[in-house]
Each structure stands twice: as C-alpha cells, then as structure tokens.
C-alpha cells in the first residue's frame, strides 16, 4: 500500500468547471487520485488496457471524475475513441459537460442516466465500465452491477471501487462525540460495503464469474493543506447536516472547531487523512 499526495499531472483546474472543481476539492481529490492510480497501475498493466479503440462508460460519474482520470493518466494517443459520462443528478451531468468540453477526449457525451437501468444503452456496448465510489449510494446495487455486465462487451473490463475506510465519516463521528456524545452517530450509506467480501459477492451474484474477478486494496493519505482544507469544508458544511440533528444553536456554533480538532487528531494519528479503498476489476 502506498501513500500518495495529489498527482501533479491532474488536469486541474483547466478541465474542471467551477462546480466540478468544488466537488473535487471537497473530496480532497480522493476519488480522482485513487482512480487515476488504478488506471495507470492496474488497468493499463492488465490484459485489457484502455486504448484508442476503447468505448468507456463512466457511470454514476459525479462531475466526470472517471473521464478526468483518463485524461490525467493516458497520453493523448491512448485516449478512448468514445466516452459516455452519466449520472442521475442533472447538476453532476452539467458539471461534467462544462468540465470536459475542452478536454482532449475525441468524443465524449454527458447524459442523465440511472446506473440501475441503462435501457437506452444496447447490450455488449462498452469495452470498459468505470463505477468509481458509487456502488454504496445505489438503492439497488445489484441492478447496477447487472446493467454494467449487460452493457459490457464479452472480454470487457469493469472497474468497481468502494471505500474500506471513508475517513470523513470517522472524523465527523469524532467531532460529534466532542459536542453531543449522547446523540446517535451520523449513519453512513450502505455500511455493509465497508466489510471484506461484500463487493465481490454483489459483483459475482449479478453476472460476473468468480474466476474473472480480482480485488486489490489501495490507501491514500491526504496530507497537503489544500486537500485537507477541502475535506474540512465538506465536513463543516451542509453535506454533514445530519451529524448536527438535535443540536442547539450554541452546539451548532461549536461544530466547525470540533471538526477542525478532529481533523488535527486524524492527521496526528495517520500522517494525514487516511482513505482505504477496495478496487475490483471484473472481466465479462
Ligand atoms: C460518491 S459520488 C462518486 C462520483 C464519482 N464517480 C467519483 O468518482 O467521485 C456518487 C455519485 O453517484 C451518483 N448516483 C447515485 N445513485 C445513482 C443512480 N442510481 N444512477 C446514476 N448515478 C447515481 C450520485 O449522483 C453521485 O454523483
């Protein structure tokens, strides 16, 4: 496992719209940087590298994080001939569109689509499907895997990632305990996906064969001030409002300092904000 600061070759801020750059900053570029390393170290070294004949789906893409990672990591002549970037949230799709309009990708389309129902996409269409840190946000993750499988060509490669340790949740819980230890901790979506074996099981039960599935783990320690600042903004703001449910005004006013203190403790303990991820590669 390696600890990696933000990659210097990422196309920021040129390929990011304002919205997309806020998203990337507030995730500490964690989803982008982990995927960028996966592309260069796991996908391009596999039997199914991405190249100029590839047709790639970046599903539940947020503001086009998968496409941005491709641009960051692949030389221009290796970029896929076609990329579909999709998400079911219109603002994510428009953020992706604004970001990628100036990218060197030969052909990129950004569309509002439900990853769990890709009926407008034919069978056996993509050579690669990227599902980056989204599976735990799906209401029906099994359907999303089935759709990934159906839309992949035989021999095509799916890249499905999910968190093993989503650091902001640990930090938010620590901040909650400092103010109102008596209240319930903020819930995390689909926590079963943090457990070992669950991602493989869901993938293997919904189309992919066990022998064609590989799992690796990756660690990212975010230690630079800019990305720590972005993550601190995320944890201090409305995305974590649930953590402050039942707070008085006075308790609310202590939240930002409590988050900052909890970030400091995380950094002291781990040398930065420590993310761990499961990376699953599955061939159809
Ligand atoms: C944690 S974000 C990950 C985004 C991006 N893939 C990344 O690497 O940062 C989860 C994304 O999944 C999207 N999403 C959730 N459910 C979805 C669904 N059923 N269909 C398509 N997108 C969905 C959300 O809108 C959000 O953009």
UniProtKB/TrEMBL annotation:
The lineage of its organism: Eukaryota, Fungi, Dikarya, Ascomycota, Pezizomycotina. It holds the Pfam family Methyltransf_11. It comes from the Eukaryota. Keywords: Methyltransferase, Transferase. This is S-adenosyl-L-methionine-dependent methyltransferase. GO terms for molecular function: S-adenosylmethionine-dependent methyltransferase activity. One of its GO terms (biological process) is methylation. The keyword Amino-acid biosynthesis does not apply. It comes from Aaosphaeria arxii CBS 175.79. Residues 64-159 form the Methyltransferase type domain.
């Amino acid at each position: 496992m390696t600890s990696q600061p933000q990659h210097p070759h990422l196309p920021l801020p040129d390929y990011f719209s304002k919205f997309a750059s806020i998203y990337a900053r507030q995730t500490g570029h964690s989803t982008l940087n982990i995927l960028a390393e996966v592309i260069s170290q796991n996908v391009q070294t596999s039997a199914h590298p991405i190249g100029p004949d590839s047709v790639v789906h970046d599903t539940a893409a947020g503001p086009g994080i998968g496409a941005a990672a491709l641009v960051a990591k692949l030389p221009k002549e290796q970029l896929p001939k076609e990329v579909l970037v999709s998400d079911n949230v219109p603002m994510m799709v428009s953020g992706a569109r604004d970001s990628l309009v100036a990218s060197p990708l030969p052909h990129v389309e950004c569309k509002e689509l439900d990853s769990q129902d890709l009926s407008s996409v034919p069978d056996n269409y993509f050579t690669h499907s990227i599902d980056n840190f989204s599976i735990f946000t799906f209401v029906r993750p099994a359907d999303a895997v089935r759709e990934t499988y159906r839309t992949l060509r035989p021999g095509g490669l799916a890249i499905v990632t999910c968190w093993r340790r989503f650091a902001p949740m640990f930090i938010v819980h620590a901040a909650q305990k400092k103010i109102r230890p008596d209240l319930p901790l903020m819930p995390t979506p689909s926590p079963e996906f943090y457990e070992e074996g669950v991602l493989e099981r869901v993938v293997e039960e919904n189309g992919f064969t066990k022998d064609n599935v590989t799992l690796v783990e990756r660690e990212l320690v975010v230690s630079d001030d800019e990305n720590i600042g972005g993550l601190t903004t995320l944890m201090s703001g409305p995305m974590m409002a649930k953590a402050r449910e039942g707070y008085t005004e006075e308790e609310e006013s202590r939240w930002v300092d409590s988050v900052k203190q909890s970030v400091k403790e995380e950094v002291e303990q781990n040398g930065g904000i420590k993310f761990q991820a499961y990376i699953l590669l599955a061939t159809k």
